[in-house]
Design a protein that fits this description.
The structure is a single chain. This protein has one domain: Porin, CATH 2.40.160. Helix content is 5%, strand content 69%. It has one helix and nine strands. It has an eight-stranded antiparallel beta barrel. The radius of gyration is 22 Å and the shape is elongated.
């Protein structure tokens, strides 16, 4: 699919139909600490990029890319009943890597000359997800620790993306952007609010 999209835009130069082009990039970072002794952490890093080709004054075709990594480190200790050994779990680590490629429609709600410019986007996305992790066990009688790795699992599925952006004009071409995006499986609209990403970045119009 993406080879086809690239071919279309290579065969028909953007300048032949785009009234305006907008490039954007954003970044987000979240850190959550939890547990009775604040021993567990969740860290998420997200990078996004997009390009929009305006074929009308307020309406554009949008191509976007998102790369995020979510790392969970748990150090809560709990025991496992075992007849032969006293075994405890002393650590759980997991990593979830997600790449998303999207294409859709971007609609501006005011002109590019406005000081504050809201925009909404909606379209199709393909998600590629890779998960991995490990669990650390401790033999309480000897103190020996054993790390068991969870095999990597790769999945991909069709999704819907939606984005709301709020741009603040800095110069004629440069804008500061705050956005919130959601990605959810195409057959499960009820999950739209379960995967929100809040990002900050910049965009350039030319």
């Amino acid at each position: 699919m993406w080879r086809t999209i690239c071919f279309i835009f290579a065969f028909f130069p953007v300048s032949t139909f785009a009234l305006m082009t907008e490039l954007g990039g954003s970044i987000g970072y979240d850190r959550e600490i939890y547990g009775t002794s604040r021993e567990n952490t969740i860290r998420t890093r997200t990078y996004t990029g997009s390009v929009a080709f305006y074929f009308l004054k307020y309406t554009a075709i949008e191509l976007n890319y998102s790369n995020s990594t979510k790392m969970i480190e748990e150090h809560t200790i709990y025991s496992i009943n075992d007849a032969a050994n006293n075994v405890s779990v002393v650590g759980n680590n997991s990593t979830l890597k997600t790449e998303i490629f999207g294409i859709g429609i971007r609609q501006a709600l005011s002109s590019k000359e406005a000081l504050i410019r809201p925009l909404v986007s909606l379209g199709y996305a393909k998600q590629f997800v890779e998960s991995s992790g490990d669990t650390i066990y401790r033999l309480d009688l000897t103190g020996e620790e054993i790390r068991v790795f969870i095999p990597k699992e790769k999945r991909r599925f069709d999704s819907i993306f939606g984005t709301f952006r709020l741009q603040v004009r800095l110069t004629a071409a440069l804008r500061f952007t705050a956005s919130v995006s959601t990605y959810f499986k195409a057959d499960d609209f009820n999950r739209a609010q379960d995967n929100l990403k809040y990002l900050l970045g910049f965009s350039w119009i030319f």
